[in-house]
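Journal club prep — side note

Before the paper discussion, L.F. wants everyone to see what a predicted structure for a comparable chain looks like in token form. Sequence:
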Amino acid sequence: MKYVVVSGGVVSGLGKGVTASSIGLILKSCGFRVTAIKIDPYLNIDAGTMSPIEHGEVYVLDDGGEVDLDLGNYERFMDIKLTRENNITTGKVYKHVLEKERKGDYLGKTVQVVPHITDAIQEWIERAAKIPVDGQSGPADVCVIELGGTIGDIESMPFIEALGQFSYRVGSENFCLIHVSLVPVLNVVGEQKTKPTQHSVKDLRGLGLSPNILACRSTKPLEDNVKAKLSQFCQVQMENIVTLYDCPNIWHIPLLLKEQKAHEAILRVLNLTGIAKEPALEEWSLMAKMSDKLHVPVRIAVVGKYTELLDSYLSIHKALLHASVARRKKLVIDWISASDLEQGARKENPDAYKAAWKLLRGADGILVPGGFGNRGVQGKILAAKHARENKVPYLGICLGMQLAVVEYARNVLGLPDANSAELDPNTKNPCVIFMPEGSTTHMGGTMRLGSRRTYFQSKDSKAAKLYGNRSFVDERHRHRYEVNPAMVPRLESSGFTFPGKDETGLRMEIVELPNHPFYVGAQFHPEYKSRPGKPSPLFLGLIGAASGELDNVLQQICQEGGVVSPRPQSNGKLERVYWKGTPKKPVSVVYSVCDRVYS
């Protein structure tokens, strides 16, 4: 097993996650099987109980792991399925060691950070690196490890010590350290300054780790004299110094690394030069360049409660981007704070109220994502009402689906006190109730989490058609509340349909209004499985409906009742295969590489 470690210095937010993801993509394109690990130095067991405004979104894995959003970047770039073991936190490591101590596994020894915590970290890395994540059996060839935080942070020290020991243990030919640092440009003099990176590398070397490669973040490419200076003072070869300068979108980062031959530097360190293929990134390059040239806009209003930090909805943003690029549309997102749509804002902050409603009324489509708690709920209900009454394409996810049900019950069924038991435990008409298997005493890891199966009840619904008329789909969940089964007959009799349910038929997974251009809600989170070139079907439906092309989308996905199945061809193109007839026979249509799923 080969290990590539990505660390960061000077400041946080430099893009270590995107860098690690890009490195994984390049190595995968060289013919290697790749996995990834994220190390988070915080004391939380996982990200599940952390505020999205403070830490960004909680990303959910197939196995129900609630993890850091960077694992979403790994999955999207490398097209892999990670596990909760691939996210190491200080809390997890200390919990593991303390549980062993309580059992007496250390045989009376004094339990210390060194060697017990550092040994546990190294064992965890080796164990997680061997877990298959690409659908094949056996371990990967290369494991990319991102060390969260910034060099010098006190909470990172045990991990840095562990990685120093680990590099010695596995050998220099199996360990490559890439240090991401900042090379700022002072506007006064216009000169690229190397001193912050010099000090960062000095601190790193003082902790026992020496970088093999420097990845320098800057507004523009590094000048040759700047590279020479960094090489001299950081003791890194010039050819091993690359620039990650500002790009139109992050899909260009793997291409930047390839252009600067970063993969060759990594392969030299890991002694893989002789067996690696030339990176095959033609399809990725076409997709990145095409994204920059899109000019026909599609405007989506995202009505949320965590809009202060856009990373709170990172997977939502990426899924919308994947779908809009697939439909050749330039994505424009209007982020609307749900509270600004409410009557309270009309009195307290009339300017914000007017601005929010102007954006909502001008949107081609509306998306209401998940969330917890009462704040902003009435604004989300108003957004759902506006979409339903004005025939604006609507996608509600998790809470967004539940509130669509509440809005319908209030304004169509004539139940003004209809509500979710989460928001009003005393409501006489609970449309959404607490799940019986949920915990009322513990928050962390107690929701309905991970991949669950949804069975389609009919092939006539838009949702079923978007999924290719399959009998079921597996999507990721994260919720404690569900639509009240007792309310379903009354809702259905008034025209509200539930085309997707769980295996029992009692848990509503998808809601839909048939007489609406596109009004769909999902209890699951389809954004977590969206990939560049393989957009989530429900997001594709929203973008298609918002741009007036839903019929075209449905025709392209399903022809003669068949399922679209892309597969690679040796000529560098992809072939769309329509399966039809009994027995099913393939009818093929070849189309360009950047049309990976939809032309």
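L.F.'s comment for the group: The radius of gyration is 25 Å. Keep this in mind when we get to the figures.
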